[in-house]
Amino acid sequence: MPPRRVITGRSQEPRRRYAEELRLLRNERGLTLKKLSEVVGWDPSLFGKLESGATMGSPEVAQALDHHYGTPGLLLALWELAVGDPMQFKEQYRRYMILESEAACLWHYAVSRPPGLLQTVTYAREALASGGAIGSELDQQVEARVGRQLLLEGSDPPPFRVILSEAVLLTTLRGPGAWREQLQFLAESAERPNVTLHVLPFSAGQHGLTNTDVMFLRLLDGRTVAYTENDVRGELMEESSRVERIQRIYDAVRDLALSPADSLKFILRMLEEVPCEPST
Questions:
Q1: Which residue numbers delimit the HTH cro/C1-type domain (predicted)?
Q2: Which of 50, 94, 107, 205 is 20 to 30 A from 83, comparing alpha carbons?
Q3: What is the model's pTM?
Q4: How many CB atoms lie within 10 A of CB 274?
């Protein structure tokens, strides 16, 4: 007979499981939220939101709680699972998110915004807020988007090639400081060994992806899938003939783009042009 599964009664959904573990550990030690705040730092309202699942907090909070509770790596691991959980995303994106987490290689063409994998927290918040997200929903979406960036980290991250339309670099954030931070993040990302970044200047003219964002994922089984998105809809393509067709278009666009070295210079020039914020 197969071994019986141990039933703990705890949730198997990552975000809820993280919240449950935080609440359980605090209660086991007889701590109030206020006392935990005094010992670890941060406002007690944050810990209340963490334990209710209203927010995920940061990896620094998870690490601090691991240290306090003597659970090295446990809470941080649960945090990483929760922020990367595809069930946080809307239904139309969920299969794509699952495939993205398993991809051996990624390619992206971005029309008007940097891909989520290359957005700062401030950029992600402003972009998602412009789509109507507010309050705890906005917090959750920002955490989920930024949490996906763990995909590009670690000892053996997948290669990621991205082509940014020049429009991406001209659609600034409201504050020059936040925009400078985003451009700096792009420049730093371009120098990472697993990231290849191209800028497609307006001088390249019209092309097959002028109004379409597209991401390609090379999966471990050798298949390539594509996710396309425009102003009104997104579509996951898994049929090989359709994927090959749009990949040929992507390759033609890449041939029009600046080299990685010239693209980095392009971003650095734009960074120099960002006005300084007035001193207070």
A1: 22-75
A2: 107
A3: 0.72
A4: 17
